[in-house]
Design goal:
The chain has 278 residues and is an alpha/beta fold. It has a single domain (7-274), classed as TIM Barrel (Alpha-Beta Barrel), CATH 3.20.20. 46% of the residues lie in helices and 15% in strands. It has helices at residues 17-31, 49-59, 77-89, 115-126, 147-160, 173-185, 202-212, 218-227, 231-251, 268-274; strands spanning 7-11, 37-40, 66-71, 94-98, 131-136, 164-169, 192-196, 257-260. It has an 8-stranded parallel barrel with strand order 1-2-3-4-5-6-7-8, surrounded by 4 helices. The protein is globular, with a radius of gyration of 18 Å. The N and C termini lie close together (12 Å). Bound molecules: flavin-adenine dinucleotide. InterPro entries: FAD-linked_oxidoreductase-like (IPR029041), Mehydrof_redctse-like (IPR003171), MTHF_reductase_bac (IPR004620). This is Methylenetetrahydrofolate reductase. Its EC number is 1.5.1.54. Pathway: One-carbon metabolism; tetrahydrofolate interconversion; Amino-acid biosynthesis; L-methionine biosynthesis via de novo pathway. One of its GO terms (cellular component) is cytosol.
Length: 278
């Protein structure tokens, strides 16, 4: 059994009433695992603003705290300040602060072009009220010119006031350990939670990885391809791979794990149970 560390779960705001009802059940089931918080994503440029707010309202005050994601690209300070004031009035004290990616066709970076500008703005507007989480990329952000520059940008987010970070998903634990090592050498010691993506479906996984710049190691791709449409084998293999990844991360000192639940109870629940973290 692994060392006991905190866990958190990520949801995206459902698009339909059916999805919203289903998510209530998922929330209840994952709640039983006693997460530290549930985070809820936010579409860049405010594209999911109403749906994110509805999900926050639904889950706030029901068990573990909620942490809204907030992105800044293509948005303006007044609208972001409105959201911060609303969250504060709802008793929310954790925000995941991101730049976001503009939906195709939308132009203009807005008043806060990078996550570090958003972090600075949140601190200016709300002082120390919010615990601010930011994104981290152990395999480098896809738009960064170099790893060194990306690390430097990350350090700037911390200097602007971020308290903690959650990583993009990855399957190579050495990338995470190297990233943490580089931060420690630069004197940055904030907790960085690995973002864990369960493997359930090969084509979805490849699509997410291509969209985010995350690497799927060749041996995983090959094995998934070999299983073809055999979803049972894919799920069993995926469970084993992700379980071993989590075990190595915990053994190597990861402070907590953040699961990209994809609005499903399984396989996240089973991973948490098998890790002894429930
Ligand atoms: P930044 O930290 O601003 O970095 C973006 C890029 O700009 C990097 O290449 C960085 O090196 C570079 N950079 C940073 N500062 C500067 C500067 N001053 N000058 C020049 N270059 C700079 N997206 C959403 O839309 N909604 C979500 O809810 C959401 N949730 C996420 C949760 C997690 C845990 C993660 C890892 C990602 C999430 N994303 C979300 C995706 C994220 O918005 C994208 O990865 C986006 O491309 C970068 O966001 P960031 O906050 O990391 O940006």
């Amino acid at each position: 059994m692994s060392k006991h560390i905190p866990i958190s779960f990520e949801f995206f705001p459902p698009k339909t009433d059916v999805g919203a009802e289903k998510l209530k059940v998922v929330h209840q089931q994952l709640q039983l695992l006693q997460p530290e918080f549930f985070s809820i994503t936010y579409g860049a440029g405010g594209s999911t603003r109403e749906r994110t707010l509805a999900a926050i309202e639904e889950f706030n005050g029901k068990g573990a705290p909620v942490a809204p994601h907030l992105s800044c690209i293509g948005d303006d300070k007044a609208r972001i300040a409105e959201l911060l004031d609303l969250y504060k009035s709802q008793g929310i004290n954790r925000i995941v602060a991101l730049r976001g990616d503009l939906p195709s066709g939308q132009v203009g970076l807005g008043e806060l072009p990078y996550a570090q500008d958003l972090v600075r703005f949140i601190r200016e507007h709300a002082g120390d009220h919010f615990q601010i989480e930011v994104a981290a990329y152990p395999e480098m952000h896809p738009q960064a010119d170099s790893f060194d520059q990306d690390i430097q940008r990350f350090i700037e987010k911390v200097q602007a006031g971020a308290n903690a970070a959650i990583t993009q998903f990855f399957f190579n634990p050495d990338a995470y350990f190297y990233f943490i090592d580089r931060l420690q050498k630069a004197g940055i010691t904030i907790p960085v939670a690995p973002g864990i993506m369960p493997i359930t479906n090969a084509s979805n996984l490849i699509r997410f990885a291509d969209g985010t710049g995350a690497e799927i190691p060749r041996w995983i791709r090959k094995q998934l391809a070999a299983y073809g449409d055999d979803s049972k084998s894919i799920q069993a293999f995926g469970h084993e791979v992700v379980l071993k990844l989590c075990e190595r991360l915990i053994a190597g000192g990861a402070p907590s794990l953040h699961f990209y639940s994809m609005n499903h109870t399984e396989p996240t629940r089973q991973l948490v149970v098998d890790l002894g973290l429930a």
